[in-house]
Write a structure and sequence with these properties.
The structure holds two protein chains of two kinds.
Chain A (H helix, E strand, L loop, with lengths): L5 E3 L2 E3 L3 E3 L8 H9 L4 E3 L16 E4 L2 E4 L8 H14 L2 E5 L4 H13 L4 E5 L10 H4 L2 H14 L4 E5 L6 H10 L4 E4 L3 E4 L1 E2 L4 E2 L5 E5 L4 H14 L4 E4 L5 H10 L3 E4 L9 H16 L4 H4 L6
Parallel strand pairs in A: 3-4, 3-16, 4-7, 7-8, 8-9, 9-10, 10-15, 15-16
Antiparallel strand pairs in A: 1-2, 5-6, 6-14, 11-14, 12-13
Chain B lengths: L1 E13 L2 E7 L9 E6 L3 E10 L2 E7 L3 H7 L6 E8 L11 E6 L3 H11 L2 E6 L8 H7 L3 E5 L6 E2 L2 H11 L4 E5 L2 H14 L2 E5 L15 E2 L2 E2 L6 E3 H6 L6 E3 L5 E3 L1
Parallel strand pairs in B: 7-8, 7-11, 8-9, 9-10, 11-12
Antiparallel strand pairs in B: 1-2, 1-6, 2-5, 3-4, 3-6, 4-5, 12-15, 13-14, 16-17
Helix pairs in contact in B: 2-3, 4-5
The chains are: A alpha/beta, B alpha/beta.
The complex binds flavin-adenine dinucleotide, flavin mononucleotide and FE2/S2 (inorganic) cluster.
């Protein structure tokens, strides 16, 4: 048995690292490429009911410690995304990320994605920079419960909820996901942030604020997973600032059964191969016979 | 990285094309590009038309952002992010034929400067021929084609390229320009078995290899490119046929 095999509920993955939503997953060919480069699964770009161009540029800024983006959920719409799914699902495990403004819209998108061959659906309840979507719904405990239970009643594939760190009631939101029958919690999405140009006396992003990703986010993400592990029984998927096998191991030991990598793909498309190799070496050296044995190790 | 720079000079190249110089620290190589922020308007990708300590971009005014750039004067500020992309990879001993179509010649100037390579400049008509004098500073043989025959060779850049490849032995073609031109130039090189490198364009948002908006067949123009070689291009199903709009939806070229 492969050392790196992991289970998120009843979804089995040969490798625990997946591509995070919004990075190299807008087209079928990109997703196929990432699977070939060692990702255990790919989460699609968040897809909505209708085509969206996203926010006007600048929608992205680089810092030494991470990135700030306000893409604004660009996507071709669920109808057009079928073509991409047809290509991607042939290559490997695809988890479909969707965003919507009501429980009903979430469930109809999830239903389409199930038909397109998604292995699971990830509800984006956490985008920090698109009005009316994401955070605004994802921090309302009752709304989260309603969305998750509506989707659970519609599809057979596992339903994951991706949560925001922009709240002090993360554990309560996690519980709402669990109580509504959600199969896993994904944490975290980006941290709401802003950058201003002194020369022009204006915010750099056209949307003014955006979401911070990359290394700066990691300690916050690890803490979020640790807290959620203490509060919940359902599996967790850790994301935020993972750049190496050590970072991935932190998330696993905080309580995640799998992890996602986004920002680090920018400068190293081979990141999954490196993480897989490093993780395997570490597990052999430190006597972990499976990922499962490492999950939550830091809690004991 | 993100930088606010002062424009140190503006040069008019033709009725609709201008070169803007600015000082920016850090190394850049021939074929790399930057993301240019015009506050309140847009942020767009532009190839570097010089890569030394003083860097420059050469901009053809075709829409809102490029027209707004053309309004800018010496001492105005713009935002620059980068440089990004792989750039051209050539060896000293390579006998190179450079082919630049339209404003595409601008991205090739740094390479011409380094190598002194023979160059074909293609334009629609005499008025649109740009950077001919600049090219002649570094390159012994510069040939110009115009579609309407109003200046030098009557025909397109690929036809002229074919004649030059037949007349003299070259190891490699390096090209930048409209995708139809690149499509036929690549076809020609593939048939003749000549190595080539071409700089491609797609809609860009992050410019840094993250968002996936610039992909062609899963390859990121901004990070895996913008320069691709003959073999890589042969594998691209979307090359010359399909691009993606800002939403990621397919559009025919
Ligand atoms: C790697 C690269 C290098 C480039 N180098 C040069 C150069 O040296 N000189 C030059 O004049 N032009 C260059 N361009 C093209 C330049 O980016 C577009 O002409 C410019 O973005 C047009 O913006 P606009 O608002 O004036 O026009 P619009 O009317 O908004 O658009 C006109 C066309 O430009 C394209 N475009 C608009 N925004 C973007 C974007 N964010 N990314 C890519 N394409 C876009 C559109 O798809 C459309 O086809 C380059 C493009 C790329 C991808
Ligand atoms: C350019 C970009 C686009 C993103 N788009 C989405 C998206 O569409 N849906 C989503 O749930 N998360 C999106 N995210 C958030 C990431 O999936 C991830 O949660 C976050 O970036 C933290 O991980 P990282 O530090 O590894 O990038 C995006 C992030 C970036 C940088
Ligand atoms: S522009 Fe974002 S990946 Fe190329």
């Amino acid at each position: 048995m492969s050392l790196l095999r992991t289970c998120i509920g009843n979804l089995e993955l040969e490798r625990p690292g997946m591509v995070a939503s919004g990075i190299m997953d807008e087209t079928g060919d990109s997703m196929m490429r990432m699977i070939k480069l060692g990702a255990g699964a790919v989460v699609t770009k968040s897809v909505g009911s209708v085509k969206r161009d996203g926010h006007v540029n600048p929608s992205f800024i680089e810092f030494p410690f991470g990135y700030l983006n306000a893409m604004g959920l660009p996507n071709p719409g669920i109808d057009d995304f079928k073509d991409e799914m047809m290509i991607a699902t042939k290559a490997g495990t695809i988890i479909a990320s969707v965003f919507a403004s009501s429980p009903k819209e979430f469930s109809s998108l999830a239903e389409r994605m199930e038909i397109f061959g998604a292995s699971a659906v990830e509800l984006n309840l956490s985008c920090p920079h698109a009005k009316g979507y994401g955070i605004e719904m994802g921090t309302d405990v009752k709304m989260v419960h309603k969305i998750v239970s509506t989707v659970k009643n519609t599809v057979k594939i596992p339903v994951y909820a991706k949560l925001t760190p922009n709240t002090h009631i993360l554990a309560d939101i996690g519980k709402a996901v669990q109580d509504a029958g959600g199969d896993a919690v994904v944490a975290i999405n980006t941290l709401k942030a802003m950058s201003i140009s002194p020369e022009f006396a204006m915010p750099v992003l056209s949307n003014r604020f955006g979401g911070l990703s990359g290394p700066a986010l990691r300690p916050i993400g690890v803490r979020a997973i640790y807290d959620l592990r203490s509060a919940l029984e359902i599996p967790l998927i850790g994301v935020g600032g993972i750049c190496s096998w050590r970072d991935a191991a932190e998330y696993i030991m905080a309580g995640a059964s799998a992890f996602q990598v986004g920002s680090a793909i920018a400068s190293d498309i081979n990141i999954f191969k490196k993480i897989n190799k490093g993780l395997e070496c570490f597990m052999k050296e430190f006597g972990y016979s499976s990922i499962e044995k490492m999950v939550g190790a830091a809690h004991e | 990285m993100n930088d606010i720079v002062k424009i140190t000079s503006v040069k008019k190249e033709s009725a609709d094309t201008k070169t803007f110089e600015f000082k920016m620290d850090g190394k850049a190589t021939a074929g790399q590009f930057v993301m240019v922020w015009i506050p309140g308007v847009d942020e767009i990708p532009m190839s570097l038309s010089s890569t030394g300590e003083t860097k420059s971009i050469t901009v053809k005014a075709i829409g809102e952002a490029t027209k707004a750039l053309h309004e800018l004067k010496k001492n105005d500020n713009i935002g620059i992010r980068g440089p990004y992309g792989n750039g051209f990879k050539t060896k000293k001993k390579d006998r190179i034929l450079v082919v630049g179509g339209g404003v595409g010649i601008a991205a090739l100037i740094p390479l011409i400067r380094e190598t002194g390579a023979d160059t074909v400049i293609g334009a629609r008509n005499k008025k649109e021929v740009i950077m001919e004098d600049e090219t002649k500073k570094y390159s012994k043989n510069v040939w110009v084609s115009t579609d309407d025959g109003s200046y030098e060779y009557h025909g397109n850049a690929v036809q002229l390229m074919k004649e030059k490849l037949a007349a003299k032995k070259y190891d490699m073609v390096v090209a930048c320009g409209p995708e139809v031109m690149l499509y036929y130039a690549h076809k020609e090189c593939a048939e003749l078995g000549i190595e080539c490198q071409m700089s491609l364009e797609r809609y860009m948002k992050c410019g840094a290899g993250l968002c996936g908006s610039c992909v062609i067949d899963g390859m990121r123009i901004c990070e895996d490119g913008p320069v691709f070689d003959c073999k890589q291009i042969s594998k691209l199903k979307e090359f010359g046929k399909i691009k993606r709009d800002p939403s990621g939806a397919k559009v025919s070229l």
